[in-house]
Design goal:
The complex is a heterodimer of chains A (179) and B (735). Chain A is of the alpha+beta class. In chain A, 19% of the residues lie in helices and 29% in strands. Chain B folds into 2 domains: 104 residues, Immunoglobulin-like (Sandwich); 620 residues, Beta Barrel (Maltoporin, Chain A). Classes of the chains: A alpha+beta (179), B mainly beta (735).
Chain lengths: 179, 735
Amino acid sequence: MAKRHLALLLLPAALCLLFGCDKGLAPITEDTGFSGVITFKNWPPPDSVLELRLVAFEVYPSDSSGIFNALLNGQAAVYPHVTTGVAGALEILGNRSADTVRYAFTTEGTILKKDATYNYVVLGWRYGPNYFADWAPAGVYTETPGTFVPASVTVRDRRMRKDVNITVDFHNLPPKPWK
Amino acid sequence: MEMNRIALVTLLLVCAASQAISAGGSIIGHVTSQADGKTEPLIGAVVLVQGSVRGTTTNIKGEFRIADLPPGSYTLVVSMVGYQRTTRAGLAVEEGGETVANFSLVSTPVQFDQVVVTASKRQQSLEEVPVSLSVMDANEIRHRNAMVLDDALRYIPGVNMTGFQVNIRGSSGYSRGAGSRVLLLLDGIPFITGDTGELNFETIPAGQVDRIEVVKGASSALYGSNALGGVINVITKEIPEKASTHIRLVGGMYNNPTHEQWRWSSKSRFFQGQSISHAYRVGDLGVALFLSRQFDDGYRQNDYRRRYNVYLKLREEFEHQSALAVTFGLLYQYGGQYLYWRSLDSALIPPVAQKDDNIKSIRFFTTGQYSTVINEGFQLTTRVMWFHNDWGFETRSGIGRAESVADDFRFETAATILPHEDHTITAGADVNVDLIGGDVITQRVIGGFALFGQDEIRLAQPLTLTLGLRYDFSSVGVTTPGGQVNPKVGLAYTPFEGTTLRTSFARGFRVPAVAEAFLMAGFSNVIARPNEDLRPERNWSFEVGLSQRLGNIGTFDVAAFRSDFDDLIEVDVVDTASNSLLFQWRNVAEARIQGFETSVKLGFFDGGLQFNVGYTYVWPEDLTRNDILKYRPRHLLYTSLFGRVGPLFGSTDFRYISRVDRVDDVLSKTGVVLDGEERTEILVTDFRLGLDFDLGRVPLTLTASVNNAFQYNYVELIGNMMPPRTYVLALDVRM
């Protein structure tokens, strides 16, 4: 009986030790941006994968000039940023052979904007030597599985959205939205 | 004026009626305790004549006298906190004679059967009531160094606070300071501000509180509007026989924030309070005066507070157990107005636009209570109150300066009648009138009246049935004037000594507070819009419970409860234009709140070691939205441990409150409160150490506390970080 009473009396101390040392809320230390997993299927021959870049557009691009205008006026952001060379970008995004790649697209080192909504997040694939013309969408972020309907991603300050996953099937590419 | 005249005539009639008591015999005696082989008189022990409305308390010598008893045979019940209740039957009283009955009470480590007054508006044993009722006494309040009374409520099982709003078993949630689903009583009188309908604990002098009784569950059948979720009755101290002075000095400081980026001030943040109370008697007149002031730098920017309280109580005792008590209380307070944080990264400073907002309040109340025993089976109590509230705030942005003035007048007369040995009837009527003025709410006069009755029927020796009914007529003007009938059925069954089964079924209702219907103001970018279509909200409340003594060392209590709400009033956003949030109170939801609660109290070594644990599970459903109700935590776990060795005592409290599932998401989604969705479970531990000692012939108590000892960072209310680790030193001097 005495042991039982002692156990009861020690309960508050035990609870203190178990839970009390957790500090609760803390300043947010997350990066700003979004992240996820890119899943690749049916890689083409390595010599036809010249470059891969993840691009987030605020406005769905309807023509090729819209793409470059968006990039120039900051309405689209590229990951890895263009200061990362072609080889470096390829290595980050699968190295032409990976089944999956985990990525983190943040405001750090890119022109991704906080408190902005990106309506078209696409993995761009350059398959030929023409830097301005030989691009195709390889995968698009969608919330409707089995389709290529773009879904929007809102970037919030000091928040890292972690579920922006993209599937890339080189035998079943999304439609090219631009002319 | 007309009401004052009616009150005066009633008082005179009652005084005259009280003279009708015939002379009879008396029971006299003294009440003592046995401690360490010494016999000590017990001061303030409650002595009740069973089956009658008569009773008294012992004086400074432990003596009592109950006079004017008709010849017959009586049973006396003597009780006092910390001692076992003692009953003595067969006390024969003869005409003109004095029957002597002396009592020696045995101390108990755990209080089994406290005398409470809130469940039925009369004195009765806690074991007789058909509802869940918790009691916190003055020692518990004082040990916790509660500067304001609501700090103490955080330790009562089933009760949690959201900001300054009290939540009993998930009933309240949070409604931005307007309206309350818990009724606050001060010595039995509703103590709710006339304009905002909120519970204002700051006006109540914490140092003058004898105990707090908390009734859990709908109590509108006896108390009317607001008692949907329960009733908190704050009972002030009796004036002692012997002149006494109590000085209390409290000082402390807030620890620096855990995270360096939260640190906004290079100076330490302190708080301090001083209070003095003096009570004395001149013949049959007792006087108690209480003065206090509290200065708090605040641990958050622009959250400082300066508070002054005055409280005066006069009590004149007349023949035939009649007494008139008059009280006056005043609060003057000003300080910064902290609504919510700038962001979680700047959790202790307000948004720039609010950094100079301030608020000032002048509140006072005066009450009168006259109680008299007409005869052995008839006691009448009449209460009047005037509660004046004047508060204003100033914002740098938004609407500038605004003020609200409200005068709440209340009158109540209630009788306890024992027509038969198996019936105890409580019946009465009350009237209230509120005069509202100022800029915040348009000028208006509102009010209502009520009739209520309750019969506690002893069906058999261990079985008591309680039937109650109250009719309230409210002319709040929210819609059209209307009436409301609230019934109640309760059953208490005591099959064995120490075992009580209880069940109750009751209806509750709440007339919307004036602020909920007519407020048209706001702080900064959070602005209220009136809603004159607001209707009263109602609920049906059911409870079944078991209370069991655990030998001589403790008690165990378990209860299951359920409340079904109609027309629940919630805050709804009506517009989010221009980065401002326009909101209003609306009848938006049908809701169901159900759960269970269990508590254990254990005591050893004559109370030298006490352990309490209480757990409450609440499942609060918004049936309209098929979602969980906002601001209702589902799990509450409170534990406390108290120990005393000679003059040294110590205690620890631990509170776990689960993370609130749902809050006002719109505040964070619209950017009004940045990071407003950030919240966590609450895990707070307090430690205290105290020493009783004498300096010369003056008894002193020194208490050191560390509240939130593990510096847990949490919010109760969206965007409102609660205090960090806080060091408190208190010195009590009694003369």
